[in-house]
Specification:
With about 375 residues, the protein is an alpha/beta fold. It has one domain: Alkaline Phosphatase, subunit A. It contains eleven helices and twelve strands. Strands 1, 5, 6, 7, 8, 9, 10, 11 and 12 form a nine-stranded mixed β-sheet that branches. Strands 2-4-3 form a three-stranded antiparallel β-sheet. Helix 2 packs across helix 9 and helix 8 (about 225-240) runs parallel beside helix 9. The radius of gyration is 20 Å and the shape is globular. The chain starts with 14 loop residues before the first strand and ends in a 13-residue tail after the last helix. The relative contact order is 0.23.
């Protein structure tokens, strides 16, 4: 257990909800440097004009679709972590996400960072619901040999499925994992993982099937995938089944073309779902012990391509919760061209492994050194009771 003296004192076991923004969120158009001439010079088409920005200060402001996020920010519940990345950032979706999932930029790893945290939280694997992923397939971050987790598409669908249909979806989830990870870690490692833990991937479904019937709420989530997934997280957490780490995914952030309307829609969905989720938890007196971490695999390039933006580096993330000490953390990436990574990307200002260490040690009270393979500078985004 971490004992650095900064972990928060709460009455219930702390819970971490990880939200994956798949595809490489355009951080420059999420947290906009609206007073920068270089921003407007570089973004002739894919840009947010100053009159539309929801201003945070005299330099930065939110995309107009992120109004719900700004509401939470004004409450002091949102820490914006700027400039997240690592040296020699990889622009491949697969490899970049794999690095974020395993906290290993230099070599291929078979162990997810959250799976290793789950191992510390439940070393004997007594509860297959200690880690729960909602969505299609099992994320690499939750996978490691010998670590038992549960993965479901969505609670309502599973509640109506027959046992045969559940087995078919289980097979599909495992097949997705096999096809996705075999090229990176090899057939042997992939099949070894599936052999040891495959039967556990959806093993908690019997316990989860009763959750929808035990839940009532006045909060109405929007009818979109991230809203449904976060509602499932809320229902499961409120049911008190002992889940400590949840994982959900919001796809579609790879905007090489037609970025403006697509990004606007996604940010509206995500921001609204996060607000509804927090409102739901508050209604059930279940918000104090929950922190959300929303991340993406990389940022986009400084200059647009006329319709969208291409793969870059130096992204950003959000930590959200009632115990979060809201504000801006780390430094916004330099807008000086001489500092650009690869000559065209925003360079990172804070190592993502330091963010993981912050969440693991200060929030979850988990030792991070083995998980992130070293000691990294941490932030201090939590209010200490």
């Amino acid at each position: 257990m971490a004992t650095n003296g900064t972990e928060k004192k709460i009455g219930k076991a702390p819970v971490l909800v990880v939200v994956q923004m798949t595809g490489g969120n355009d951080f420059m158009n999420t947290l906009v440097p609206y007073t920068s001439g270089l921003y407007y010079d570089s973004r002739k088409t894919v840009r947010i004009t100053e009159d539309r920005v929801i201003k945070l200060n005299d330099q930065l402001g939110f995309h107009p679709s992120a109004a719900p996020l700004k509401e939470m920010y004004d409450r002091g519940d949102v820490a914006i972590i700027q400039g997240i990345g690592y040296e020699n950032s990889n622009r491949s979706h697969f490899r970049a996400m794999d690095i974020m999932h395993t906290a290993e930029p230099k070599t291929i790893s078979t162990e997810g960072w959250l799976a290793k945290a789950i191992k510390q939280l439940d070393p004997d694997g007594k509860n297959v619901l200690t880690g729960v992923s909602f969505g299609r397939g099992l994320p690499r971050a939750m996978a490691a040999p010998g670590v038992r987790v549960t993965s479901v598409g969505d609670l309502d669908t599973y509640g109506l499925m027959t046992s045969v249909e559940i087995e078919e979806q289980r097979a599909e989830a495992l097949d997705i994992f096999k096809r996705f990870y075999t090229p990176a870690i090899g057939t042997g490692a992939t099949m070894s993982y599936l052999k040891q833990t495959g039967d556990d991937v959806l093993n908690g479904i019997d316990q989860l099937q009763s959750v929808p019937g035990r839940y009532e709420s006045t909060v109405e989530y929007e009818d979109n995938p991230i809203g449904k997934s976060l509602r499932d997280v809320a229902r499961t957490h409120i049911a008190g089944l002992g889940t400590r780490i949840f994982y959900v995914q919001h796809a579609g952030y790879d905007h090489h073309a037609v970025e403006m309307p697509a990004h606007e829609k996604l940010l509206a969905e995500l921001s609204g779902a996060l607000r509804d989720f927090m409102d739901d938890l508050r209604e059930h007196d279940a918000a104090e012990e929950v922190v959300i971490y929303a991340f993406t695999e990389f940022g986009r390039r400084v200059q647009d391509n006329g319709s969208g933006t291409d793969h870059g580096s130096g992204g950003g993330a959000f930590t959200i919760g009632e115990r979060v000490d809201g504000g801006l953390y780390a430094g916004y990436q330099s807008l000086g061209p001489k500092t650009f990574a690869n000559g065209e990307d925003l360079a990172h200002t804070f190592d993502f492994r330091g963010v993981y260490a912050t969440l693991l040690e200060q929030w979850m009270s988990v030792d991070s050194v083995d998980i992130v393979r070293g000691k990294y500078e941490q932030l201090h985004p939590f209010r200490v009771a």
